[in-house]
Design brief:
heterodimer; A: 529 residues; alpha/beta; TIM Barrel; 2 domains; two-stranded antiparallel ribbon; B: Rossmann fold
Chain lengths: 529, 245
């Protein structure tokens, strides 16, 4: 339980949560109408379809594009794969390989429904068992080795080469990092497929592929044993392939995923229906796999003013919480994001940062909050940057943040050098240990700047959510309510990959996960009449 | 005692002491060998009286902080930098300059092009709010600014420029790993030339690794590096357009 330095107006917190639930429900109705090519490729991948054709197109894409091209994807890819597997007595992988050589799934004869249903059930069971085994393995390792002490030190590696990333990641873990994120190569978010195999070329990051996930997880398992802490691995469940990346992460035992309900719409101009449907299934998979999601509200403050728009971060935290819970995530899996982005020249800026961080901490007591470092006001002055990061570290330990992305003194210059990362870890270790129990020793004046700022933000949040609830989330986004960015309701990338579900649609994973996670919707089933 | 000539070297706390601070990592564990290697490297880089003030072991790597006296110096009389004296106008001055010299709004289209998803620089120049107290182009009454955001293909940027009859194109490039920006910027200029648009447009580029010389080499009218705010860009565009009219 976090400390209660601030007196929050509990009535306003309840109201905000209630409004956010209503906003999330407003989108849920749309989510249940549609499936997407990425959702269907995820089913194909979970059925064991891996690899690529001679042109490098992943077989999951080959199969789904073929059925979509025949106008039959509204039934869900599960049925078509299972029907073919029964008809030809082959595994899904063999079917996909045949498709690459010209087999047409929709030309095959319709098989006996019970046998097809049985095949679907068998494949689904196999995949869910594999995910569950990884979840149990993670829990056993956490139990055996333990985790670092919160705020957990989170660093990024971004060399472009997975094997170089491994060296950087091990070095960081040995120096004290608790969490390693492999930044994706720029623009992967807009690829409508997931590349195949290990990769050694990337720009500003490394391709997220299942093979790369496996290489890094194995390396971190080794180093976890060596340092006596379970080192957690993060990647990006965002962009056009949200649920596929979730499935790959679930199978390869990633521990956290960047996974925001609105990020793709706002910052990558991805179609709203696409993102909402994709985020829902991806979060369901993350929920089932025991993966902690990280939401991306910190980004709002890089495009909009961090002081004037602090309340939009908290409002989005409320919405992300409700959309996450709707997809079956538990509170302990909701790494809601926020950031330390005020202008360092601002008088009392640190007090305002404390006010926001502590408010969010108290409102989401069970959530492993993700706190992001200064970026917008980082310059080439690395000496000043190091001090800004020290202030950020202090705010984080004082307000009990959980996942602490370490600021790099070279933030404005390049992807981190090995020594940048280590200087940052040392900075955090020093500040956090030196001020470890500071928050227990102090209280905030009831009429003071921090308390008043907190109360003002909470009031703004209630007003802001009230407006959004009245408009609906899609219209609010189209009018620039978040991050000063406007996105048209029907526009954006990837919209052509949204498919209205047919009455005979089925997604066995959604159905099973909904049952097991206790979700009360019918998103895995056909469209109601 | 300060000599009268214009030949200078780094200044620590006395004229001519040449004091330089440096830090780097070597891919060997800390120890006497690594220490000696660091000193020799520093000597080869032109430092004398090298003092390693910190050597830290980073598990197979070693990190050094060292000081030394730079043996080289630079003659200021030998330096001539293009346009060095040109002062940027203020927000108000740019707007009245445009009103008086051009007599209509300037249309500017900005984007992070290619695969680049980092809009922080573009937003600092274009967004209403601007950066560090300097308003962005969207706030200028005499500039009609379009911010296309991130990952905009070069052809889309040019299309938009034609559609809104742009006077100027602003490109931001943050990701420069393996020189991906060079390729992308070259492509933009080639496309503009192929479409017969190059002469009609003022084309500028900005980013942490961009400078005037690189921009000129790639065929841009100007390049803006770190520390640029909106008034630097607006001043250039306004003056350049006035010059061309």
């Amino acid at each position: 339980m976090s400390n209660q330095l601030l007196a929050l107006d509990e009535e306003k917190v309840r109201k905000a949560r209630h409004l956010a639930r209503s906003i999330a429900q407003g989108v849920q109705a749309d989510i249940e109408l549609n499936t997407t090519v990425s959702v269907e490729r995820t089913v194909a991948r979970l059925y064991g379809i891996d690899g690529a054709n001679h042109a490098g197109v992943p077989l999951a894409n080959v199969v789904v594009d073929q059925v979509n091209g025949a106008g039959c994807l509204d039934r869900g890819i599960s049925y078509w794969i299972a029907n073919a597997a029964v008809a030809l007595d082959r595994t899904p992988q063999q079917i996909a390989e045949e498709c690459a050589r010209g087999l047409r799934l929709t030309d095959l004869e319709t098989q006996e429904p019970n046998r097809v249903a049985q095949a679907e059930e068998d494949y689904t069971n196999q995949a869910l068992a594999a995910i569950s085994r990884q979840r149990q393995r993670r829990e056993a390792l956490k139990e055996k080795l333990g985790l670092g002490r919160e705020p957990l030190k989170y660093v990024i590696v971004a060399s472009g080469n997975i094997f170089a990333d491994v060296e950087q990641a091990k070095s960081a873990a040995r120096q004290g990092a608790d969490i390693i994120a492999v930044i994706r190569t720029t623009a992967q978010s807009l690829l409508d497929y997931v590349p195949y195999g290990t990769t050694t070329e990337g720009f500003g990051g490394t391709y997220a592929t299942q093979a790369n996930f496996k290489v890094m997880r194995e390396a971190l398992d080794e180093v976890s044993e060596e340092v006596g802490r379970y080192i957690q691995l993060v990647n990006y469940c965002s962009g056009l392939c949200m649920p596929e990346i979730a499935a790959m992460g679930a199978l390869e035992r990633l521990d956290m995923m960047l996974n925001d309900a609105m990020y793709g719409i706002l910052f990558r101009d991805i179609n709203m229906d696409r993102t909402f449907a994709d985020q829902y299934f991806s979060r369901m998979i993350n929920a089932y796999a025991g993966i902690i999601i990280n939401t991306g509200e910190d980004n709002y403050l890089t495009t909009a003013d961090a002081f004037e728009h602090a309340h939009t971060v908290l409002a989005s935290n409320f919405i992300n919480e409700q959309m996450g819970l709707a997809a079956g995530l538990q509170n302990w899996q909701l790494g809601l994001g926020h950031a330390f982005e005020l202008d360092p020249k601002m008088k009392n800026g640190f007090l305002y940062e404390l006010a926001t961080a502590q408010t969010i901490r108290q409102i989401f007591p069970e959530a492993p909050l993700k706190y992001m470092p200064p970026t917008k006001y980082m310059t080439g002055d690395i000496f000043m940057g190091h001090v800004q990061n020290a202030m950020f570290n202090l705010a984080s330990v004082m307000t009990g943040q959980s996942i602490h992305l370490l600021g790099m003194l070279t933030e404005a210059i390049h992807t981190p050098h090995l020594s940048d990362r280590i200087l940052s870890i040392e900075n955090a270790q020093y500040v956090m240990e030196n001020a470890r129990d500071l928050a227990q020793e102090i209280s905030f004046r009831p009429d003071g700047i921090i308390q008043q700022r907190s109360a003002a933000i909470l009031s703004q949040v209630v007003d802001f959510l009230t407006e959004i609830e009245a408009k609906g989330l899609k219209r609010a986004i189209s009018q620039g309510y978040f991050a000063d960015i406007k996105r048209p309701e029907a526009g954006g990338k990837g919209g052509e990959g949204v498919i209205r579900k047919g009455i005979d649609y089925s997604n066995p994973f959604m159905n099973r996960m909904q049952q097991e996670l206790g979700i009360k919707t019918g998103a895995g089933k056909g469209r109601p009449f | 005692m300060k000599p009268k000539d214009n030949v200078i070297k780094p200044y620590g706390d006395a004229w001519g002491d040449g004091q330089v601070q440096m830090s780097f990592t070597l891919p060997v564990p800390a120890g006497p060998t690594a220490m000696e290697a660091a000193k020799r490297l520093a000597a080869q880089m032109g430092l004398e009286a090298v003092q390693v003030v910190s050597m830290k072991d980073l598990h197979g790597f070693s990190h050094f902080i060292l000081y030394g006296s730079c043996r080289h110096s630079v003659d200021l009389d030998q330096i001539s930098v293009a346009d060095a004296g040109e002062e940027a106008m203020t927000f108000e001055e740019v707007n009245s300059f445009i009103a008086e010299e051009i007599g209509r709004k300037i249309v500017a289209v900005g984007a992070c092009t290619g695969t680049d998803a980092h809009t922080v620089g573009l937003d600092a120049i274009m967004n209403m709010k601007g950066y560090d107290g300097d308003y962005g182009l969207e706030r200028y009454p005499m500039i009609e600014a379009y911010n296309l955001g991130s990952q905009v293909p070069n052809e889309v940027l040019l299309q938009k420029a034609v559609e809104v009859k742009a006077d100027a194109i602003l490109v931001s490039q943050v990701v420069t790993q393996k020189n991906v920006h060079i390729q992308n910027l070259t492509e933009l200029i080639e496309m503009a030339e192929a479409e017969n648009l190059r002469e009609k447009l003022i084309m500028v580029v900005g980013g942490p690794r961009i400078d005037r010389a690189l921009a000129a080499e790639l065929g841009f009218d100007a390049g803006f590096g770190p520390g640029t705010t909106a008034r630097h860009v607006s001043t250039f565009i306004a003056r350049e357009l006035a010059r061309r009219l």
